[in-house]
Amino acid sequence: MFINLEHxxxxxxxxxxxxxxxxxxxxxxxxxxxxxxxxxVDTVFFQVxxxxxxxxxxxxxxxxxxxxxxxxxxxxxxxxxxxxxxxAEMARLRAEGFTLLNEEPKRGADNKxxxxxxxxxxxxxxxxxxxxxxx
Length: 135
Hints:
By secondary structure, the chain is an alpha+beta fold. It has helices at 15-26, 64-71, 86-95, and strands at residues 2-11, 32-36, 41-48, 51-58, 75-83, 106-108, 112-117, 127-132. The two termini are 20 Å apart.
């Protein structure tokens, strides 16, 4: 079950400059900066009401964000929804005909498991499912 809009992911080239810009724009400082080795990405999170804004910058040429920015301008990269049970949602979406970019959920930033729905099957939008990791 989808719970809420968890965050908007914004692809940026210069994480420090974007962090400064969004700090001034949103009027709040980020609450977390984190490196995700598996995706070769640095992230910065801002809390905005009940949702978040995530800035993403690639840290290597083979990072998905670096490759994305080779073809597209900075801006909205994905929309993320929090789900109750990521594996159940992945199975449900596959049964509904959606193509997932991950066979299994991955561990990501902000203590989440995540997977992506291919934009070709989601009206051109890269959709992320995320579930908080319960230790």
